[in-house]
Design goal:
- By secondary structure, the chain is mostly helical.
- It has 16 helices and 2 strands.
- The chain has helices at residues 26-29, 32-49, 51-54, 60-67, 72-91, 93-96, 102-113, 126-158, 163-192, 195-216, 240-271, 275-299, 306-326, 337-369, 373-403, 408-432, and strands at residues 7-11, 17-21.
- A hairpin with a 5-residue loop joins strand 1 (7-11) and strand 2 (17-21).
């Protein structure tokens, strides 16, 4: 039986009254089957989509630099196209939400994915190949961005008042892509060439999206009302904690994608490792990323621990990136195992940090503007993902530009220094403004984020 959505009239800081939807007590109003369906739809969709991000990691840079003789900057632009399109699409989510229900978003996702890969089966000149790669990755980024926020909304509905767990589940879906995508992509590229791995990704997305469309018919129609209740974009940067979260994610993404984008080419140049071996190393790092997100989700359920997860995550990432750069110098005799181990450690720090940021900004935002948790999570999820992918857009370009003047080792060391500088700045920020250490206690709201009449 479908349940109506309760509402409450609240006053903003200017005294104006506004009626907003309240979060449902999903544990009371939704059956277990319905919640499992919502979670499965979101999880499978996110997993399938982000395969486009992870599958090309072992071979895209090598194809452009090694096989086609083009610069690292061009490779960086190709990597960055998906991230820029995804970032801009996610930022536009509050504008497009009234017109795109979850079901429509999934269908549009499929329509954008379909034309993004077929031409890879055709022999293309270098310029045509680069142009099509940039276009196809931009289409893939738009497709992912259109449905990503809607599915984060659905995951929040399925796990009410467990924002840390929701973030952990969201990151696990991405970490599974990090585990599966690179090794599959590297193997298929070596055996069957450039086009097949990406076309198989497209087929996988279409299959999963079709299942997702079918699953949406089992979700109560009242949930679609949430798609029209997003706050305005002007609310995002009203509070310092929002800018803090954005800064952390952008810096983490810049540093991580510099390493991820050029890791396979670094291993080939220094140790003559194939795309498959690089993919295996990335898969192992994805396993560590998964474990880190699980740990962060459990520890972060106590919100007082969120800031510590951010501190430790940034410190681990910075140290591992620095040591990866050193591996090309005095530690080169240790062989390829050292940079592979540091790569896994980098992903551990990334998992700890990312899972901690979203609950922090959602709880603070939700307590200050009194939106329901799933709506606040959906809107802040757009900020969260767009910030990360804006950094992912900048990372490969910055890395490609640095590689014109320096080595891979120095490029990785610069990433580590950037992360450690961010760690120091965040530490100073929290120490100077202690009120931001406990944003969940403001405005008389309870720690579970509920609004009381």
């Amino acid at each position: 039986m479908e349940c109506s959505v309760p509402a409450v009239t609240i006053q903003d800081e200017k005294g104006d009254e506004e009626t907003r939807l309240l979060s449902r007590d999903v544990t009371m109003e939704m059956s277990l089957r319905c919640r499992v369906t919502i979670f499965t739809v979101a999880f499978l969709n996110i997993f399938a989509q982000y395969m486009f991000f992870t599958v090309p990691l072992p071979f895209l840079a090598n194809e452009i630099i090694k096989e086609r003789g083009m610069s690292a900057t061009v490779a960086g632009v190709c990597f960055a196209a998906l991230c820029l399109a995804l970032c801009l699409t996610l930022l536009s989510a509050p504008i497009t939400s009234p017109y795109l229900t979850k079901r429509r978003a999934i269908v549009l996702n499929m329509l954008l994915i379909l034309p993004s890969t077929p031409l890879y089966f055709v022999e293309l000149s270098n310029n045509a190949f680069i142009a099509y790669t940039i276009l196809s990755r931009a289409l893939q980024g738009i497709a992912i961005g259109i449905s990503d926020v809607r599915f984060l909304d659905m995951m929040t509905i399925a796990f009410s008042n467990k924002m840390s767990l929701v973030t952990s589940m969201y990151e696990i879906s991405f970490s599974l892509c990090l585990m599966v995508g690179p090794v599959v992509g590297g193997f298929l590229y070596e055996q069957l060439g450039f086009g097949l791995p990406l076309n198989l990704c497209a087929v996988f997305v279409v299959i999963m999206s079709t299942l997702a469309v079918i699953c949406t018919y089992f979700i109560p129609s009242s949930f679609e009302a949430d798609d029209t209740t997003h706050p305005s974009l002007s609310d995002i940067f009203y509070f310092p904690i929002m800018l803090l979260g954005v800064t952390i994610l952008v810096v983490v993404a810049i540093a991580a994608t510099i390493v991820e984008s050029y890791y396979s080419n670094f291993m080939w140049r220094l140790y003559r490792k194939t795309e498959t071996s690089s993919g295996v190393a990335m898969t192992i790092s994805g396993l560590f990323y998964t474990l880190a997100t699980l740990l962060s989700g459990v520890v972060g359920s106590n919100q007082k621990n969120l800031k510590y997860l951010i501190f430790f995550g940034l410190m681990i990432m910075g140290s591992s990136a620095l040591l990866m750069g050193v591996s090309g110098g005095p530690l080169r005799d240790l062989g390829a195992y050292w940079p592979a181990a540091m790569y896994s450690l980098l992903e551990v720090g990334s998992g700890l940090t990312q899972v901690a940021v979203l609950p922090l900004i959602v709880e603070h935002y939700n307590n200050r503007v009194a939106y329901p948790e799933n709506i606040a999570a959906s809107h802040m999820g757009g900020v969260y993902c767009s910030s990360f992918f804006f950094g992912s857009f900048l990372g490969p370009i910055i890395g490609g530009a640095l590689l014109r003047f320096t080595t891979y080792q120095h490029c990785f060391e610069a990433s580590g220094l950037l992360l450690l500088l961010e760690f120091i700045l965040i530490l100073v920020f929290f120490l100077r403004d202690r009120t931001l250490l406990s944003p969940w206690m403001k405005n008389g709201k309870s720690s579970d984020g509920q609004i009381c009449n």
